[in-house]
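Aim 2 progress update. The chain analyzed this quarter is reproduced below.
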Amino acid sequence: MKVDFKQLGFIHPTLRQILTRIDMIPGTEQTITSLYRIDHTGVHSTLPLRGVDLRCRVEEIGEEIAAIINELWEYDPDRPEMKCAIVHGEGGNMHLHLQVHPRTEKRGR
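Predicted structure tokens:
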């Protein structure tokens, strides 16, 4: 089932754009494994939500998706080493972590 991310108002608008872009990649299905985390610090505990984890069963595919996202969006121009998408974890805990910052911008604007 396709999700209309525009209807998820508690998710940061830039993060919604990234999730929508991933949804357009042929053969990808999104299973969200983590959204808002109570009593947590970082992007998973902000509102609007700035962090989402997606299930990733094959590391190489996750890396390809992360490369697409990171090519399209810059997390924070002041911290170019930071990325919007990274794959991490092992085995059943492997996931594609997506994050945005208030200064995240689409590249090539």
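The longest strand covers residues 51-55. The chain has one domain: 5-106. These observations will guide the mutagenesis experiments scheduled for the next reporting period.
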